[in-house]
Amino acid sequence: MSNRSSLIVLLLATTALTGTAAAQEPSVRLDQLSVEGTAPGPAVGSGGGGNVSGGDGDTAATSGGGGGPSGITGYVARVATAATKANTPLIEAPQSVSVVTREQLNDRNVQTFADAVAYVPGAISARSGFDPRFDQIFIRGFDVLTNQGIYRDGLRVIGSGFAYPKTEPYGLEAVTILRGPASGLYGLGSPGGILDATSKRPVFVPFGEVQFQAGNFDRFQGNFDVGGPVSGSDGTMAYRLTGVRREAGTFIGLGTNNDMLNIAPAFTWKPSADTTFTFLSEFQITNTPASTFFFNDPGFRVSNYYMGDPRFAGLDQTQYRVGYAFEHKFTPDLIFRQNFRHYGLFLSAKYTDILSINDERTIGTRDSGYQRNGLVQQTLDNQLEARFATGPIAHTVVGGVDYARYSLTTRFGAGFVPDLNLVTRNYGQQFIATPTLGPSSRQTQDQIGVYLQDQAKFGDFILTLNGRHDWVSQDNLATPDSAVSRQDNTAFTGRVGLGYVLAPGIVPYASYATTFTPQVGLDRNGQAFKPATGDQIEAGVKYLIPGTNIQAAFAGFDITQSSILVPDATNISFQTAAGAVRSKGFEAEATANIAPGTNLTIAYTHVDIRFVNSTSFAGESLNGNRVSGIPADTYASFLTYAFPPSSPLRGLQIGGGIRFIGTSFADDQNTVRNTAVTLYDALIAYDFAALDPKYKGFRAQINAYNIFDRNYTTCSFGFCNYNQPATVIGSLIYRW
User: Fold this and answer.
1) Are strands 193-199 and 150-152 parallel, antiparallel or unpaired?
2) Which residues contact 588 (CB under 8 A, 6 or more apart)?
3) How many distinct helices (H) and strands (E) make up the chain?
4) Does residue 80 belong to any structural domain of this protein?
5) What is the pLDDT of residue 482?
6) What is the CATH number of the domain that holds 326?
7) How buried is residue 613: exposed, middle or buried, by Cβ count under 10 Å (0-12/13-18/19+)?
8) Higher per-residue pLDDT: 444 or 255
């Protein structure tokens, strides 16, 4: 463990909230199914966009790693698997964990994976402004996209270069955010944490949902989600089919699109209470602008000259995945699981850039780029979970072997295009030749990891220990005629965490965890870069108010990532693995389900992330500087209120959110700051069953984001871009 000042961790004052129990009815509808998929839900007209889930293992879903969160009521989840690869109550996990449930995704009508974490502590998106191309999210100041910290059903979603699979949030049951290093269970990755997206899975209850959505920027979208038991299977088979079709523009205009087609079939076979096999698949096509940026004037000012061109501005991405989740219980205390997935992605991107503008601001000189990427990956995780006791100590042991492989092929071409007339802005009026693609380059990576974890409970103490050893090899082929450059890395990582049940529902804890990330390339001596390594100290307290669906958490953290790439002082044409970044701060979170359709989530984060022993490519020292684009303070809260059945306004649900994004630096030299901004979101919905029972299942909903149309820019790495303006989406929903 590195020598660092200890973190002062105190439990902030906890506000007790009370709620009334909901009346329940025997009928089952899509928005009323509980986590188990069999229990009835709130009464008609109680409001809320509920969820279907199989997260407890008593339905189609597996119960351990990859099975997703469970114990869900409204926005509150009591159990998650991401922190331990086993069903562990959130208050017992020795790291910060947040869960975004399906009901919260529904209420906010989340449209992108990055927006799913908008109200989660420690997580930010839009560091580069509006950019629908990638699911780029930062946790505790660290990028989880490029550091391979995004997971689907417990398996890593691998991306590289320009090719990253995108996640459609309508196809998700929940999103779990584990903050801090997770290499002790998952292998290489971001020191900031991981995001695990849980796919919608079959349940053994018939259900259905169709939606039609329309909004500004010519947005039209249709969603459907249907499933249930397979007829004639005697309750051993179930299916689910989810799909989305969207045609939309963007605020950029000029023919820029944000279109998508997604269809996700899933099938479960459960021949006995002890064995479950779930097939998961998806096919998706997206079309977004390949460039979303505007030309920057000196002084970190964003002009209104869009750098793209509608004649040459599309990023077309086709991706698919097929896989399965298998679980067999030899006994209630001995369970084997195997999760597998194959991903394929094919991408074509064409874009233009404005290189310079003349002094009269009449002509913009431009160039173009064209690339084609192919990415295939396979991930496999074998797990064995055992529960036993040694004297007074109760153990939950998870051990496993996993394997991940990806292969990326890239071809790129560049050229010059006709100048842009900035007076007439003749976008799309000139022919732009497609550049000739250069030779293909290929990058492959194989990873094998062996891990073991023990959660030991003795008295009021909860001790979590895990360790993992990884072997990672990577081959790089710059051109078909060049020699293969091979790089091999091994690493041992782990975590130790200790919690203590101070009182019912109150668990203070402390943990230490390590991480590593391989780095591609050679130094000036022709030696492969050693992996970037990181460690974290975290301490905090978690509180689940007994007898309620109200929970809160506070955590302090101190993360150092070492051996990151910086320019070599002896030869700036090369890099060396000698830099470091340190992130420290604290987070507070509260989530409550007060009544059906009435939920509250609050999140506050303070992050101080700075360079240590680092220099810029211009040779300037960055020591002590803050990393650009990462706000020091963020606050977010979202509240919904559903009028009770006894109210004259029954059936009506209202809600709103506040997102405060504090100041950050626009460049790593810390010369200019981004200004703080406060954004407001709103929700209003109505369940028509409150008018007449014959309208049961019909719901109208309007969501508005950035409702006061705050026009602001975000700068990072010295480049600035616009953010999304006010957006309104109306939805007509029918559930049965």
Assistant:
1) parallel
2) 12, 121, 552, 553, 554, 602, 603, 604
3) 2, 39
4) yes
5) 82
6) 2.40.170.20
7) middle
8) 444
